Every structure is written in C-alpha cells, then in structure tokens.
Amino acid sequence: MNRIELETTAKAMVAKGKGLLAADESTGTIKKRFDSISLNSTEEARRTYREMLLTAPKAAEYISGVIFYDETLRQKTKEGVPFPQYLSKLGIVPGIKVDTGAKPFANFPGETITEGLDGLRERLAEYYGLGARFAKWRAVIDIAASIPTQFAIEANAHALARYAALCQEANIVPIVEPEVLMDGAHSIERCEEVTAETLSRVFSALHSHRIHLEGMILKPNMVISGKKATNRANPQQVAEATLRVLRRYVPSAVPGIAFLSGGQSAADATEHLNLMNQSGPLPWSLTFSYGRALQDEALKAWGGKPENFAAGQKAFARRARLTSLAQTGSYTAKLEQEAA
Q: Which residue among 51, 111, 177, 192 is the active-site one?
C-alpha cells in the first residue's frame, strides 16, 4: 500500500467545486435507460453515449472523476484514445465499479448481500493497469416492516471492508458505498435510525480491516423520507438529519463524502447538497457522485440521435455546473431557470 498515492488520489476526487460522474451502469441498467428514449442498447450506442458525456466542453471544470463499468473502461473515443487515458490528460481520475451486484441474502427474506470478492485481487491489478485509480462497491440496505436486520447490515459492512482492503493493497482508492434505499413509505426518522446503524457498523468493520481512512471516500445516501411517505421531510430537514448522522459516525480522517443521488430528482439532489455545504465548516469535503441526477437531462436531450450530440453535451455540462456550485454552497434554485 502506497499511502501517499492513495491520499493524493482521494483528495483529487473531492477537490473544491468538483464531484464524480457515476457512469457505471451495468449493461442491463443502461438498456433500461435507453429504452426510455427508444434506443437499441448496442455496444456502439453505449460507447457513443459515454463519449458524449466525457467529451462535453468544460466537463473537467466540474467533474473530478468518472466511475466506469468494465465494458466502458475498455472503450475508446472515436479517435481511438482509451477513455481512461483521455480523462487522465484532462486531470479527471478514472474509476471502476468492481462489485457484481446485490443478490438475495440466503435465509434473510427481503435483504441482499453484495457479491464480487472472488477474484477481486486479480481484477484490481488488471484495472490498475488499464488506468483505474479508484473503485466502487455498493451495498444495499432496504427499509421495510421487519428489515433491515442487524446481521444483514453487519454482513454487508464486512464485505465492504474486505473490498476496501483489497483496493488499498492495489493502490486503488476505495469508494465505500452503503446505500440505505429511499424506496418505501418510511419516515425520515426511520431513515436516520437505519443510516446511523449502517455507518456505525461500516466504520467498525473498516477499522477491524485496518483501512487507511485518509485513502478512501465514503458514498452514502442522504437521510431522506421514503418515496411513498405521506409526510415527506423538507430540504432543510434532509440536510440537518444527514449532517447529524455524518458528524456522529464518520471520522474526520476521511477526506471526503460523495453522496449518491439515490433516485432523487436532479434539482432535489442539488439543493440538498447545497444546503449541507452552507451549514458551516465541516471536517470532510462534501461532494457528489451522481448517476441519473447528472445524466437524465443529457440523455433526453440527446435521444440517441447523432444530430443531438452537442445538445446532449450542453445539457450535461449545465447540470454538472449547477451541481458543482452546490459543492461550494453557491447554488440557488433561481439558477435552474437561468441556466435552462
């Protein structure tokens, strides 16, 4: 483990005014996105779409790193430049999703365990050779009447820690992503309770596995009401509850927290991040690691049509700029109309 290399990469990933683009949709997930614009999900269509995002003008001003899927990490621009190499020249850090998905957790109905540890050491070595300097592993914690169970949280925390240790061994910064889902009808108070328990277990496991905290990034959910909740918390309540949990359970040694959008609209995810960054001094950098919240507008503007390539890039750059402003607490809702 090269601690200096890990720390340098981690700091670059959470640089002021920048955040991460999660472009790590699996083949199945990107097909669903393409179905929404009636586009056949061929390898070339996927390559073109990702190139549209990565080569958008001014992207490097707002994006510090990009999370790739295995297929995408190996793809090239139309000029033949490998995506990781193209990004590195712009000062954007290439990353890779390494888990193989959340699968049903045997004997625990309704809960999942994320798989992908088998052969991970060898895959990380290959990914490093291809240019990846950070990785991502997502654990999924759902909320329902009798779940999550403590054991399911602990099992996922243990897997996250094992993954993180293997990453740091390979000089790859681990993004540790324990996502408490916002599906369901639970209250913000219930989400706060589950998120607190999850983060407590995750950092306990990271400590047991001797993870170098200065060389990792946390990617948590925001503390938010369930989508089906009848009395949903307002943005200020979301910001306050999220910061309350983070202050209690995330060590100050962690350089940055890159939130997932978790199904929020682009505007909501931006506003919540902005409010948190307006709250005053914090021990870590608060930034974004958004997928749909950064891409949806660009996907619709592009529509899979070559003549709309530039329009898709403009839509992506616009949303990336607004989100980067939220990373410094400089975003206002009025900008949504002005930038449209």
A: 177
